[in-house]
Amino acid sequence: MTGFLRGSATALITPFTARGIDFPALASLIEAQVKGGTDALVVLGTTGEPATMTEEEKTAVLLFCKEKLAGRALLIAGAGANDTSAAVRAAERAERTGADGILAVTPYYNKCTQKGLIEYYRTISEATSLPIIVYNVPGRTGVNILPETMERIAEIKSVAGIKEASGNMAQVMETARLIRGKCDLYSGEDALNLPILCAGGAAVISVVSNLAPAGVKALVEAIFKGNLEEAIRLNDELLPLAKACFAEVNPIPVKMGAHLLGFGTGIPRAPLTPLEPEHAELLLSAMKKYGLQVKA
Predict the structure, then answer these.
(1) Which stretches in the chain have pLDDT values below 50?
(2) Residues 6+ apart with CB under 8 A from 81
(3) Choosing from 58, 68, 120, 135, which is the catalytic residue?
(4) Is 163 a catalytic residue?
């Protein structure tokens, strides 16, 4: 299927306190994203740290986001796992809590075969009526979806597209060619948003848009309008900020960035640790250079 997601989506951070989810901070983040023109929020993706959350916390976050969004942007729920039955349960939870779609990362650690990937997504599809975004991020999972495999996955009902974060533009281009007209291509790597959109990408699923939602949306809109010169200018401005957001493993830097903007998002959950001082200085400098109003 095509046309489910178009524009800019934010891989939303999850703010924590020592007691649990910081719902007031989460509400502020949601409002900032809507104000910035974000078309969709991806909740409980990698950036949201679901690996450290209880099932009760995940359900509560999805219900809260659904209520606060009130239809102003799509709600996409992270629902992948290294256990297919767990991925199915996550997809069912997403549907039960009112999500508009799911983002299903490839099975990690188990390192299944390409055939196993096809069966994994087929099984999830059979368990939910929600649109499914396939997520390819081999740097985290140890598993890479080959273009020929994605061509077959694209034929599964309700597969809406692939979030590509392999970092291999030759592979991305071949995947784009093979799935064109069957499902959509989404950029899952801020440094490659521009070329992936120019290759026919329908949307970006961005980390840096936690800090600069309007800037990421403007980049996407410029490309859609065919204004490549403007898109290049906007991308040049965003790249140093995006680089700083990956100075350490995601979401450590971007959570610090949101904290510096005054959202009170707190530190990541263990085993992730607070941003190192030298990287905090780099991030702060990039944020100020981009023009963000640092408050904290």
Answers:
(1) none
(2) 87, 90, 107
(3) 135
(4) yes
